[in-house]
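Hi V.,

You were right to ask for the full record rather than a summary. Here it is.
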Amino acid sequence: MIYYFAALAVTACIVLLSQPKHAVNRSLAFFLLCAAVGGLTEWANTLPGYWLFNGITIINQTLTPYGALLFALAYTQDHQASGRFFTEYAVMNRGTRGLRLVLLLPVVLTVILTPSTPRIQLHELSLLLWAGPYYIATCVLLIRAYIREPNPNVKRKRFITVLLMVPTLIAVVLFINVARVVDPEFPFFNYVAGFIIYSLGAGLGFAFVTGALGVRLRLEQDTLESTMKAISSGTAILNHTIKNEIGKISLSTDNIQAVLDKEDTDPAVHAQLQIIKNASEHMQAMVTKIHAQMRTLILQEEPVALLELVTENITEQEPLLDQMEIHVVFHAVIRPVVICDKVHIKEALGNVIRNAVEAMPDGGSLELSMDATARKDVILTVRDTGSGMSEETRKQVMEPFYTTKSRRGNFGLGLTYTYYVMKQTGGSLQFHSREGEGTRVSFVFPRRKVTRILNAEEVRP
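Predicted structure:
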């Protein structure tokens, strides 16, 4: 049993240290540690007094199912696929804190109602009545997340998570919770040990290979962070020159604008000058932000009218869109205000739009849409009618420095940066593409980042 404790405890430490700030890893580590202390039961039973034995029993038998459900909720919420009831409850509480407290009630009641005898003995039937549903709900949420996932790469990771956890959790319910109701002295460990060994062995292997439990994901995020550090370090070297050149552009634009204001000039000329001025201001803000950060993105979040930001972005891209004969349609069902960093979100959206334009060298249609899901997440989608991507390309499209473009000015960082910005914002970037069917990229802003949603008429820039 001591080996059982050591194996689970080490696994919990690996999971936690790989991403200590990630809710999924924290909740999984909590679940594994609560399960691990069960391996100390026999040792604690040999010690004088019962306080340690009683504490281990309570933690292992009551907090383990609680921890399993916390992991499932964090996992499904992290991937935007949690069950409707749990998600809506979390939305009402502006997070999952209220839900965690509610789910803790059976644990507290079990401890309170258990007789305070020298050697604690939990009522097995009462424990089964809530711990069993907790384990089953965990399995249902994990399976549901797998079924509802549209991204092939993420779907594969979710399938592995289901394979690792669901069989073992069902075995725990049957051979521990149910069996103890029938026979309190049932030798459950002889039956459950095989499932635990399977989950641990396969889990560690899959975690490093596929990132199913978050370990490889940490390595991927380190790559992203290193990439952003390289970008910002390079920008720091060139910052002075770039800032001076942008200043010249801005000053010259102001001078031209002042001259034209005195004459009867075509409004279209003023509009083009305004585009140049807006672009130079945005470039200056972007360079300043990256230069100041040096390692990671530090978001300066504020309420942003997303519809206006999108419209402004499209307007600035009009010369390129007209040149490439791209027809643009913007369907805005809603007019949301979201908490985000305007500069970074604008740049991220610009990256996606430019990628879409480059995917249609012979012209085509660019469709942007903005809507809200049933749970009030805001989704901004950019869809093109380009050639789409092969499966092999889709697997690598988010990798730093990967690019399908032949031009020397493309470094393969646009989608990496965009993904990173959305992750830091608390949202997600969803990517869908098929060869011959175009590409669809969706920016998902979670409900907790949305301050207001108003209806909006269709906008056609």
